[in-house]
Amino acid sequence: MKFSIATIPGDGIGPDVVREACLALDAVGRRFGHEFAYTPVLMGGCAIDATGLPLPPETVKVCKAADAVLLGAVGGPKWDNLPGNLRPEAGLLGIRAALGAWANLRPALMFPELAAACPLRPDIVEGGLDILIIRELTGGIYFGEKGRSPDGQSAWDTEKYSRPEIERLLGVGFESAMKRGKKLCVVDKANVMESSRFWREVAEGMKGRWPEVALSYMYVDNAAMQLVRNPRQFDVIATSNIFGDILSDEASMVTGSIGMLASASIGDGSLGPGLYEPIHGSAPDIAGTDKANPLATILSIALLLRHSLGLETEAKAVEAAVRSVLASGLRTGDIASAAGSPSKAREKSVGTREMGAAVVAAIEAKTGPAKDRT
Ligand code: IPM
Ligand code: MG
């Protein structure tokens, strides 16, 4: 089949990792008989430099018309002093809203091959970690009314959620839980915030439709603590935009694999296709130096194949290829073992391009359990 992919390489290491991900997707195309046509568009700092806007209208148009959007990263110190609505981050929030990508799926997965990189005591993560954080992405305080008082002496942002916004997000939470460990934890601050009490009320009204899912609630401060105390208690976490932003960074670090984690931002498809991106940032200090780890972006194409193109076998083939490359000992700097550690001797340190090429080779070598359709 033929698919059109809008790519947003963005800033910093974004272009480095998106390039490798597209090469991996091409390898998927060769193996399974698909064709991927890429249209690169500008967003973030590079768009500000070229057009004066972080999200040019042309970018929105191309992304909406594509079958899926692949994003690298945006932002960097060069654009840090611009007003809020002209910063690169405004482009990211804008494209999420324009595509109606209101559910952000952030799997925090510990790769057994990288268990040594986990900063928690081995007994705490014994058996591995596999948490899915589902973050509301186009509402709440990041999109609520904000402002400054005329005297310039105060400022505000507003947390506001409507029933439909909560229902659709929790619906993804319940459905995801059904496909996994059947546990859903709604994280909020219901002991203080009215909007959180509303989230609970909506969840209570929905839970009867998924009787097999064990629904629980947790205050966000406690959840932040529990993620390091006993992260294995979690299966699916569903939460608001700001809490999900914070907790997903924490969860990713807990797995020890921040350079490895992918994310999918999806909606009901009525405004546009899904958006896929690594959760690490733009790392401007190593941009263009062949040091970035491309695996999080390559794993993002696995999510893209699964969620936007409905190609599960192909998605699994990408994931299997990444696992086989890790098993063969290849490591970019961010996932290398500490000097002198026992595992170090079995590792080979590689750059962005060599890592990407190894994944391409593994996809083409039909590594792993995936069965080809063609
Ligand atoms: C993320 C990032 C963004 C967010 C920033 C860059 C606007 O932190 O994707 O988590 O807060 O959503
Ligand atoms: Mg964040």
Describe the structure.
This protein is α/β, with parallel strands linked by helices. It folds into two domains: 1-104 and 262-374, 3-Layer(aba) Sandwich (Isopropylmalate Dehydrogenase); 119-254, 3-Layer(aba) Sandwich (Isopropylmalate Dehydrogenase), CATH 3.40.718.10. The protein has helices at residues 14-32, 45-51, 57-65, 88-98, 122-125, 163-179, 194-206, 220-229, 241-255, 295-307, 312-327, 352-364, and strands at 2-10, 35-40, 68-73, 103-109, 130-136, 146-148, 155-157, 183-188, 214-219, 236-239, 262-266, 275-278, 330-331, 348-349. The strands form three sheets. It has a ten-stranded mixed beta sheet, sandwiched between helices. Helix 1 (14-32) packs across helix 10 and helix 8 (220-229) packs parallel to helix 9 (241-255). The protein is globular and about 55 Å long. The mean pLDDT is 95. Bound molecules: 3-isopropylmalic acid and magnesium ion. Residues 245, 249 line the site of magnesium ion.
